[in-house]
Specification:
34% of the residues lie in helices and 17% in strands. The protein contains 14 helices and 14 strands. The two termini are 30 Å apart.
Amino acid sequence: MRVIIETDLRDDVDDAGALAVAHALSDAGALDLLAIGINTCGHWSESAARVINSYYGRPGLPVGVRHPVGTEIGPEDYARAISRMHPEIARSRAPREAVGVLRAALAAARSGVTLVSIGYYGNLVDLLRSGPDEWSPLNGAELVRRTVVRTLVMGGRFGGGSASSRVGEHSLSSLPSEHNFAHDPSGLPAEHNFAHDPAHTAGFLQGWPGPVDFVGWEAAADVVTGRRLHTRHSAATPVAVAYALHSGKGNGRPSWDPLTVLLAAGDLPGFIRWSSPGTVSADFAGRTQWVAHPGGRHRHAIAVAPPDVLAAAVDDYLERPPLRPWGLTEERPNGPLVTAVDPQEVEHTC
């Protein structure tokens, strides 16, 4: 299974956990990770992705970031922290533009790609609007239609859940609307990815070719994983540091993004079932709207296993140490802090 991941790697630490799961699945031969797109504009997120890739022995994995690149950081600043721990990686090159990286990976794959979106939708909307280039004579929509066979999205809210008091970024506890979508018509708190940029959310939902499977907020809000990262890897490794900075050592985090990546390697019978077909849309604020109908191209995940059982399935990959940590050696050399780009403040909406 050839996989491209789109992630914000900034606002919540489960993005870092999702990359860890993807690398562990790659080590196990369950998927082939082709590229990573960063759908926020912070150079720290881009360099953090390269640090994580290097830790798992894949320093050459293509990474692109949304432009123009700025100095955006998340509330717990874990991306900057793990970049500064490994400056020889963070300083290695100027960030590549995300849509170009996505187009290059899709064109090289030719077909059979699973695209996993665990962040925002600006890169994917721009990909659909992109024209022919050095990588492919096809426009973006044609390239996606020809190469992508499955799309998995962490976003939206399709029911209740009991963890709303503690889930932070993916709920409305501290945000005006859902972070991937927003707020559904039933009045439930909304999910974070849809609401970040409602226009891009709507553009993706309306324009993306082919079927899309959604992992909503409620599917993983009680599935807490990553509690043992600091002992299974070591407290100083990038993903363990990220979780400790974001959530506190040993506390773990709900598994929205790691579960979505795990499903990219194959369905999980007995753990997750899929809804009947329907259509997901979003209103002007990014609020999730779901209409079931036989001709729909969308489905959403429904957890059927208890949260602790599903958490164990995710942790099985999240907590696996790399087969080849740092490629050849366990330790990275120390060096002076040099950022990947000159950190200049830029005014724009990412």
